[in-house]
Amino acid sequence: MNTNEKYDLANQVIDHALKNGAEQVSVTIYENRSSNIEIRDQKIDSLKESNRSSLSISLYVDKKYSSHSTNRMKKEELFRFVDEAINATRFLAEDEFRSLPDPGLYYKGGGVDLITFDPKLDSVDPKTKIDISNQALNEAYKKDDRIISVSSYYSDSISNSVMVASNGFKGDSGSTGVSLSVTVSLKSDTGRPNDYWNENALFLDKLKTTGIGEKALKRTLSKIDPKKIVSGKYSVIVENRVAGNLMYPVYGALQGSSIYQKQSFLIGKENKQIASGLLTAYDDPFILSGPGSRLFDDEGLAAVKRPIIENGILMSYYIDNYYGRKLGMKPTSGSSSNVVLNAGSRNLDEIIGSLKKGVLITGFIGGNCNGSTGDFSYGIEGFFIQDGKIIHPVNEMNITGNMNQFWFNLIELGNDIRENETNRIPSLMFEKVDLSGI
Amino acid sequence: MNLKRREFVKISGITAAGSLIIPPFLTSCKGIILSDNAESYLSHFEVTRALLQKVISAAMEKGADYADLYFEHTLENYSSLEDGKVNSAYSNIGFGVGIRVLKGDQTGYAYSESVTPDAMMKVARTAANIADKSARFSPVNINEYISPNYYPLKTSWEETSVKDKIPYIQRMNDNIFAADKKVIKVNAVLGDSTSYILFYNSEGLLAYDYRPMVLLAGICIMEKNGQIENFFVGRSNRMGAEFLTNELVDELSKEVVAKTSQLFTASKPKAGEMEVVMGAGESGILLHEAIGHAFEADFNRKKTSIFCDKMGQKVAEDFVKIVDDGTLQGKRGAINFDDEGNPTEKTVIVNNGVLSSYLHDRISAKYYKVNSTGNGRRQDFRNIPIPRMRCTYMENGPHKKEEIIASVRNGVYVVSFSNGEVNIGQGDFTFFVKFGYLIENGKLTKPVKDFNIIGNGPQALADMVMVADDLVIDNGIWTCGKDGQGAPNSMGIPTVKIKKLTIGGINA
Description:
The complex is a heterodimer of chains A (438) and B (508). Chain A is α+β, with helices and mostly antiparallel strands. Chain A is 21% helix and 37% strand. A 6-stranded antiparallel beta sheet of chain A has the order 3-2-1-4-5-6. In chain A, strands 7-12-13-14-17 form a 5-stranded mixed β-barrel. Chain A has a 5-stranded mixed beta sheet with strand order 10-9-8-11-16, with no helix packed on it. In chain A, strand 12 (357-369) and strand 13 (375-386) form a beta hairpin. Chain A is globular. With 508 residues, chain B is of the alpha+beta class. Chain B has helices spanning 3-12, 18-21, 38-44, 49-59, 117-128, 162-179, 246-262, 285-292, 297-301, 362-368, 401-406, 457-462, and strands spanning 66-82, 85-103, 106-112, 143-144, 183-201, 205-224, 227-237, 272-278, 322-325, 346-351, 354-355, 376-377, 386-387, 391-394, 410-422, 428-440, 443-448, 451-456, 464-467, 472-482, 485-493, 496-503. Chain B has 2 domains: 3-262, 2-Layer Sandwich (PmbA/TldD fold), CATH 3.30.2290; 272-503, no CATH class. In chain B, strands 1, 2, 3, 4, 5, 6 and 7 form a 7-stranded mixed beta sheet that branches. A 6-stranded mixed beta sheet of chain B has the order 11-10-9-14-21-20. In chain B, strands 8-15-16-18-22 form a 5-stranded mixed β-barrel. Helices cover 22% and strands 38% of the residues of chain B. The N and C termini of chain B lie far apart (76 Å). Strand 3 (64-70) of chain A pairs parallel with strand 2 (85-103) of chain B.
């Protein structure tokens, strides 16, 4: 379906729903095409081609609400699907807070091109993709006697969607994405360490295709024969690639649904200090070619660049239309776009070089955070650092704390923000962190 | 086939049918469970035997060794309660066919969301490109596989209206609020799904399955003197609407109230290595993470698993026997045949402490020259099947629970979990403990909560020094993620003592 055909089908489904008892309706039609290539030890392991489509509908009937999705896109079937859905919605309980967003908050068109769609990606032939994957793999393949396996993964994705709401919203968007990664496994006396490196881009010709296999191999070699260290309070540096893991519980606690359901450790913290004054984070939907960039969100709300945390003070939550009504707060968007942290002045090596004793965390494994209390505990791996030097790899340890205290222990942000990520976060250093080992 | 049957099938057909495409969340359906024969499934997907053979021939036309077609039609429904009322619902329909082509251990995969001959031929030829010759494939005779039924159904979700489901969700809410004055919020959800599966491969195997699934979950949030605590409970089975009983709802409500209440006095444990007693039931997560994944044969075939050179070796005490079983009736991890058409079974992976089998899919079974263990599973028709666990549990051992607790001087007894993870190569595994107790000098003492435990798989297996005789298979809502695909699992374990694991806690 092209964009006009999607609008046409969405409008027909909306008309049908309104004629058959719905008071308000919104419809999103989404199409995605993707290909995935995995190469292992210079041989193609799998080739996969995907083409998917879906129609999602939100129905507001007699002050009652339900939502549905299907990949059966024929008009007659969709009409029957909607009829049944409307009938069934009537069995639910009323919810006075359910209605489409205030049209005043909708995106009204005229936004700039955020350059999120690579028009050439669709015509790239499979051989080119296989060649890119092979080249990445060959940077590591057979480069060390201890290698057991090297795999490279290429994937791309082309998405288009149209959204129409019965109270005056229409919008369409398209985005593309390409990613390339290499994983290396080694054999050692104590195990089979593995690690990876990956690069992402929205445009194929912007994808960094060199150095991936090399970095993956280097990282894996550095992880041979890890040891755990004695439990205690340490300074830790969290590498940029995984620092986002520590932000996820914060994003969760900023959600309107978490606040409403008392599953947030940030309830009532607006305009209060929740982290070290060093921390500033913006939600920025307008970064050109940013993977999370958008002109409107999944409810049609016009995108706004806004501070989330400024100098450690909580500036705003992620409030969608429904929980905005329930909480009596103005919707800001219930989902993040690109989150950009402020950068510091030193790179990771300089920060490591200044650390007398501590741990560089390069990976998390398992663990969780209690949303209501902020208590967290995660498995970690990384490196023991003494007098500014990496001494040995560590594994089989945990990091434990409480989110409401932990972020006050942030003492430095690196200057190494990773581009091409929705979470633009540098390496972070914290002090007095509880680590569990021996 | 009599007239009545034909009509019955006809209204079940995709294009003809209002009934079939309606999500069962919706009003009444007219008793449209397909009868147990291949014809009804062929009609459902609007394909003929001749068309299946034609599509398979196209998939094989570049000289592949093997190809299969996996037709799926899944209807899912969720009804949710917030603020004391069942006031939102979601349903989803997924329909399509996945076509897989194998050449040696190489896989070509593509899927179509339409089952017209043209659409399927196009997709078959895309997947065929994994092979690179030109070959003529002569279809073999079709051999219909009648599988055992490990999830016999009394009442399908398709004939169960949302009206019939609401009272159970409501009852959970009302029970929880009535049980304790500290309760400030309750969330509850009932989810059900129904899948029609039709499978055909280049060896002529034709199989079909009707797969129900249900989950019921509740979250209780309590407040006491400004402290807020929450707890989640859930149950899931491959069952129809007979799953829903007042007894089950009452049991879950009681459990969530009791578990939320006890959190108010719980604290974080001390950091470091300790003896760990895993309570019977949910602690099966230990087997899933520490051992099960590393036994999945794809990791071993690729030599990336820490267990890949340990087949036939002693890895645990004599009394340790661990199995992965797809045949337990009505369990979330049960499956009549796997998503590659292979029969499911009870696979013994550790017997008398000796590693006895990996968990195989078709590719790894061929690599190791063994029969498939029926572990080739996929999230849906959009995904390539890979080795996955079903219901992984440990059989009873010689010890008693009391004896195990009494043997611990300084440790933790852990009973409730939320999630886990494993690194296959280095063997590190973790699980997150929602609730447990300290054990001091052989006695359960202070309650503890919200901490991660980390260990090493082969070491933990060797360190299982006591196994009790109180096996419980847990019916929690376990979904395992691998290669971006989710798969429903069950797990179970008797009370087990592990010499030492690292507890994520606080340092003095």
